[in-house]
TrEMBL record:
The chain crosses the membrane at residues 363-381. This is D-alanyl-D-alanine carboxypeptidase/D-alanyl-D-alanine carboxypeptidase (Penicillin-binding protein 5/6). Pfam families: Peptidase_S11. It is an enzyme of class 3 (hydrolase). Keywords: Carboxypeptidase, Cell shape, Cell wall biogenesis/degradation, Hydrolase, Membrane, Peptidoglycan synthesis, Protease, Signal, Transmembrane, Transmembrane helix. GO terms for molecular function: serine-type D-Ala-D-Ala carboxypeptidase activity. Residues 24-250 form the Peptidase S11 D-alanyl-D-alanine carboxypeptidase A N-terminal domain. It comes from Fictibacillus halophilus. Belongs to the peptidase S11 family. Residues 1-23 form the signal peptide. InterPro entries: Beta-lactam/transpept-like, Peptidase_S11, Peptidase_S11_N. Its EC number is 3.4.16.4.
Length: 400
């Protein structure tokens, strides 16, 4: 675990760099979880945060990373032989048997629906050879998606002081994972028949809000004594998709109530604004540039994004408080200068090209005339030579 002073410094830096949108005119909910964040799943804009950059123990929401890595491996149809280490995993299990052969996809389902710790170990061993090597892959993945204050040592979230994350990092990880259709399908599954050598049952998804909160589409809950109750939830409703992370809630009930309170707050106070491709944006010099793609930001309802174009050709979309929500390159200044230079010299270049063409045509015609004249001179000389020869022949005939 890093020292507390380093954590505080990092938290301050993250707070400064955060794309945070605050709704006005509405009281934000009071929640019991020690850390939480809510983001728009499409834009990544933060709609609510509480200690979102503070390091916490994740418990079983760790399995979100294990699951997406397994899915992206491209090996879901392959068969995994269960090891003795997987069978001996502590905590919640799907009761795998040593030597049992299980498709990787089925292990992912047991991992994400029933929170099987044994399935997590089996996945790690199959994909990376051992748990430690798989943890390295998890950390590389976290870095790739921008989860910079996260470190994993196992695939299931069992407690370790060096196994930690933040609410903001888990939101980024989940935002990435939820873009995968296979992942979305698995975490949204409420019940699944399970037939294994050691257990035959119907798995029931541990995420209770799939039944209790309209629009919920997953993803994962967790608990160990040191982390208390952790919960990651994706909700889609009213043209809005949000991801809510609550960490270290005192009870399971508190985690669920906090999540629903944040969801209600988000859907009541925010909406996504989109500038469509082709929209003309005016730069500082008065020139306009069309957007080549749709740009979306999330703002309090009734608020429009503030557009600013700087001298470098970057369009910034800001909220009413001046927070930059999105930066998009409209044009590159060097390219603009080059274009302007070409425009200012276009007339001169046209005149120069025309004159060059005239000169070339004159030279061609003059050369042609010289060749024609030379040809005529040669013909005349040959004609005269022939005439003189004939006259000499006639003169000789008279002499005889």
């Amino acid at each position: 675990m890093k020292k507390l002073s380093l954590i505080l410094v990092f938290s301050l830096v993250m707070l400064v760099n955060t794309k945070f949108v605050q709704a006005t005119g509405e009281n934000t909910p009071e929640i019991k979880s020690e850390s939480a964040v809510m983001i728009d799943a499409k834009t990544g804009d933060i709609l609510y945060q509480k200690n979102s950059s503070e390091q916490m123990y994740p418990a079983s929401i760790t399995k979100i990373i294990t699951g997406i890595l397994a899915i992206e491996s491209g090996k879901l149809d392959e068969s995994v032989v269960i090891s003795s280490d997987a069978v001996r995993a502590e905590g919640t299990r799907v009761y795998l048997m040593e030597g049992e052969q299980v498709p990787l996809k089925k292990l992912v389902q047991g991992l994400l629906i029933n929170s099987g710790n044994d399935a997590a170990v089996a996945i790690a061993e199959y994909l990376a050879g051992d748990v430690d090597s798989f943890a390295d892959e998890m950390n590389a993945f976290a870095e790739k998606v921008g989860a910079e204050n996260t470190h994993f040592v196992n695939p299931n979230g069992l407690f370790d002081e060096e196994h930690y994350t933040t609410a903001e990092d888990m939101a980024k990880i989940t935002q990435y994972a939820m873009q995968n259709e296979e992942f979305r399908e698995i975490v949204s599954t409420k019940e699944l028949p399970w037939v294994g050598e050691g257990w035959e049952t119907t798995l029931r998804n541990h995420h209770q809000l799939l039944w209790d909160y309209p629009g919920t589409i997953g993803v994962k809950n967790g608990y160990v004594d040191e982390s208390k109750h952790t919960l990651v939830t994706a909700v889609s409703r009213d043209n809005m998709d949000v991801i809510i992370v609550t960490l270290k809630a005192p009870t399971s009930r508190a985690a669920y109530w906090d999540t629903m309170a944040l969801g209600d707050y988000g859907f009541a106070n925010f909406e996504r604004k989109t500038l469509t491709a082709g929209t003309e944006i005016e730069a500082l010099n008065g020139d306009t540039y069309p957007l080549k793609e749709d740009l979306a930001v999330t703002l309090p309802k009734g608020e429009e994004p503030v557009q600013e174009v700087n001298s470098d050709g970057e369009l910034q979309l800001k909220d009413a408080n001046g927070n930059v929500l999105l930066t998009h390159t409209l044009f590159k200044e060097k390219e603009k200068e080059a274009t302007t230079t070409v425009d200012s010299k276009s007339v001169e270049e046209v005149d120069s090209t025309f004159m060059q063409s005239v000169v070339k045509a004159g030279i061609f015609l003059y050369s042609g005339l010289l060749l024609l004249l030379a040809f005529l001179v040669i013909l005349r000389m040959r004609s005269q030579k022939h005439k003189h020869k004939k006259m000499r022949q006639v003169a000789r005939s008279y002499v005889k």
